[in-house]
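Most newcomers find our protein records easier to grasp once they have seen one. Read left to right, the backbone structure tokens trace the chain's path through space. Nothing more is needed to start thinking about how sequence determines fold. An example says more than a description, so a record of this kind follows:
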Amino acid sequence: MVMETPLIEFKNVAKRFGEKTVLDKVNLNIYGNQITTIIGKSGTGKSVLLKHIIGLLKPDEGVITFQGKPVSTMKKNEWEACRSQMAYLFQNNALLDSMTVLDNVTFPLRQTTKFSKAAIEKRALKRIEDLELTEAIHKFPSELSGGMQKRVALARALVTDPKIVLFDEPTTGQDPIRKNMILSMITHYRRKFGFTAVMVSHDIPDVFFISDRIVILWEGTVGFEGTYEEAVRLKLPMIDEFLRSLDGFQDELTG
């Protein structure tokens, strides 16, 4: 089977902060229309990797390509066209407290498009309805539950119809039931809207069941990249420690 060209590719990407090498010659492929989950212990550079994808950080060495073309050789408008296809869902939601749900969701469109106010509102209302937030439209983030805030952040991320959505620890600080809800929400909307999802998480093993591919960051480099089934078959020691918590989990998730 011939693999298609990766949507995003990291070739020998290195990133240092002072003396500390956070990414050490990372090679990685992200394919379109899949959920790729990046796992690893805290401080292994998962969020740093995500920030490289969206251009918030630049590599010290190596190349990142987008649809086969190196980002470093792109002209400004070319990169901006790529960048506009991505949305980033921050770990803490990063909602604007002084704005209502509607204003939060329309914000990216107001910033990045020339649409009329009516067109912007129409698109935002559609996403708000998609994510079952209609009754919260005039509320402020502080008036919403954690799960609802997460949905507002997702509605805001999806309002620009992105091709790629980056999720930074989307389930951090949520109880098990809400974790499952957020993960199934991501799967559901990914199917519905057809975007590529790249997720950073340490919610093992929950994320395995919704991921098409997993990438394990291990001491600054990619220790494994492939499907969950392959990882289990290879009996990787780094996965073994995660697997011990698996028993009974699947019943809980599927039941």
